[in-house]
Amino acid sequence: MKKVLVLVLAVLLMVTVFGCSAAPAEESNGTDTSTPSEAAGEAASDGTSEENGADGKTLKFGYVTSDMSHEWYQNIVKGAQQRAEELGIELVTADAAMDAGKEVTQLENMLTSGVDALLITPVDAKSLVTVINAAKEQGVPVICESNVVEGATTTVGIDSVEGGRQAGKWLAEYATENNIDPKILVVGMPQNEDCRERVQGFKEALDESGIQYEIAQEVDGQGEKETSLEVSQDALTAHPEINVIFGINDNATTGGMAAYKEAGLDESKLTAIGFGFEGVAGRTALLADGPYKAAVAMFPDFMGQRLVDTAYEVVNGGEVSERTWSGSTIITLDNFSDYYTEENGEYITNFEAIEALIEE
């Protein structure tokens, strides 16, 4: 059993934790200020989607994601499928299930089937070199989600440092307004560059705010709820004074919250901040109006749309930067309705509001 656990953890360390993106790059290398979503939206609205390629044929995109067992990727695929349908694009999807070899095979099969673009959430970036070169030889653009891969046309994702800064700025203001002396537990994933950047931005914003705070302890939750719970239990035993939890994704934050509750500590004194706001888990925690007060939302369904829109633009002759930004912002109970509307028991994301974030 221990050998199995070690193997699973090793595989997890090869990839970016759900929703993590890579280091920032220049936002634009041209003068065109329109976004891929705007360009694709114009195509959908003017009725040109049935024959949507530059040569008049119906386009076919292939998307291989790393692990569809997680809500983050389920919602990315949902958004991508919705956008592809609007544009009249055939979208073929596959789940690599955290198997790098399987992902390469799936991508090779998609190339053989004649896709016009490849969309990838990488399991292991190094394993993709050969298939990306093959795509280049065939003139097929490669659009990566969050993780920067050498040779890819572009990567769609957020600025992780800026996302962390959004969380730190919010905490500084909230702590000041509520007379909180933050004793912080950071539930991170230090082996991962993007997650380190989230924590980096968080600390930078706190330092710049001038408030007095203390990082009581930093733990490695591996981006998983159960692991986050276990390591947070040890931290809370050593530091029962902790009154703030900052997690690098929803699992990290909710795992830390669960440990706090199991320790029998006073939850009314806890402020928890999430990152990702990936779907039901984060939304449920926030709407419960408990310790989970805020999250950096990354809008996975919007990211799925942006993947398709970016591929659509490239296939039709457009130019994109090495990085294509998708929006992030702090979500609280106060502004939740600005970004989500409930309809028949489902929460619909306000894509126009997210587009506005990118344009700011």
TrEMBL record:
* Signal peptide bounds: 1-22
Protein family (similarity comment): Belongs to the bacterial solute-binding protein 2 family.
Q: Cite a GO CC annotation.
A: cell envelope
The residues covered by the Periplasmic binding protein domain are 61-318
Pfam families from the xrefs?
Peripla_BP_4
Extract the PROSITE patterns matched here. PROKAR_LIPOPROTEIN
Q: Where is this region: Disordered?
A: 24-56
Polar residues bias (residue ranges) = 28-37
User: What name goes with this protein?
Assistant: Sugar ABC transporter substrate-binding protein
Which keywords are on file for this protein? Signal
Location in the cell reads: Cell envelope
| Chief subcellular location | other
Does Signal count among this protein's keywords? yes
Cross-referenced InterPro entries: Peripla_BP_I, SBP_2_dom
Q: Which GO molecular function, any one, fits this protein according to its record?
A: carbohydrate binding
